[in-house]
Amino acid sequence: MKPSTQQALELRQDYFGDKLSLIALSKLLHQIFNIDISLQDRFGGPDPSSMPFGYFDADGRCVANFSVFTMPLTVDGKSIKAAGYQSGAVLPEYRGRGLYQNLMHRAFAWAEEIGHDAGVLHTDKPLLYTRHGFRSIPQTKFCGPLSKTNSSALKSRRLELSNSDDVALMSHLLETRAPISKRFAVLCQKEMFLLNACFDPSIHLTYVEALETLAAWKAGANGTLMLLDVVAPQMSALVDIAAAIQQSFHTVEVYFSPDQLEWNGEPHPYQGTCDLMLMGLDDLERGAPFMLSPMADF
């Protein structure tokens, strides 16, 4: 049974400073998406640029939410102040009351007011957002052989999210990183990188000290290196990164634009579970193919 339309709901904005409200949002997202954002507590909490908009009932439950955060991008060598939209959810019994549309309008207006130049979101329901000026953008992964190298002497070690020193090192690298691509890349977004690594235990986090480089990768089928992200103050060649991982890889799939890797791969369409949608950046599709790193997924 749906709650009465007369039942009072409290609108809360910028409520991450209230522990109980944040716990209530975590419960909502766990119920709707089966994800646990409370894992962020291990890494310092939510992105400080986040601005949540939510409705809460008399029992303190978060019944609907839509959040926006600042997502700085590099696009074709230019810095863009984009807004990322996430954590959009409504409890089933509160749907059909216009709560989600109300919260979206509030978030869009806030993002425009503080000067964001573009909007970015991931969704499996793109039709919800096309009416607001968003469009789905095709993404491309890059595939090809790995060349031999003499860099096998490079030492590496696996970093663990359960180790506070390793987390501190990763946080520093993420806060001081260079863009992985001049074509299309997220700058920083430390919180989503660490949270995505928590969500998927098959992701390896390898640190190459001589290169000051953190590589996020998976082992694919038939000796394939699936390179998800590279975090470093200066990008190194793919052949050196792959050699330092110290696995017997013959081919590679790069899940971001590889223009900084001194390597050219063949572009292949990427089929994810969600659409990447953009508002603004209208010229982007007319350029070279690109992909948003899975470690920046949100």
Helix-strand layout with pairing:
Elements: E1 10-13, H1 19-33, E2 51-56, E3 62-75, E4 78-90, H2 99-113, E5 118-123, H3 127-130, E6 135-137, E7 140-145, E8 157-158, H4 164-175, E9 184-186, H5 190-199, E10 204-208, E11 213-219, E12 224-231, H6 238-245, E13 251-254, E14 266-269, E15 275-279
Written account of the structure:
- This protein has 298 residues and is α+β, with helices and mostly antiparallel strands.
- It is built from 6 helices and 15 strands.
- The chain has helices at residues 19-33, 99-113, 127-130, 164-175, 190-199, 238-245, and strands at 10-13, 51-56, 62-75, 78-90, 118-123, 135-137, 140-145, 157-158, 184-186, 204-208, 213-219, 224-231, 251-254, 266-269, 275-279.
- The mean pLDDT is 93.
Short description:
By secondary structure, the protein is an alpha+beta fold. The chain has helices at about 20-35, 100-115, 125-130, 165-175, 190-200, 240-245, and strands at about 10-15, 50-55, 60-75, 80-90, 120-125, 135, 140-145, 155-160, 185, 205-210, 215-220, 225-230, 250-255, 265-270, 275-280.
Keywords:
seven-stranded mixed beta sheet; 298 residues; single chain; 30% strand; alpha+beta; eight-stranded mixed beta sheet; globular
End-to-end C-alpha gap: 32 Å
Beta fraction of the residues? Answer: 25-35%
- Helix content bin: 10-25%
Largest sheet: 8 strands, mixed
Number of helices: 6
- Decide which structural class fits the backbone: alpha+beta
Q: Strand-and-helix sequence, N→C?
A: EHEEEHEHEEEHEHEEEHEEE
Low-confidence stretches: none
Whole-number mean pLDDT: 93
Tally of strands:
15
Global Rg:
20 Å
Shape: globular
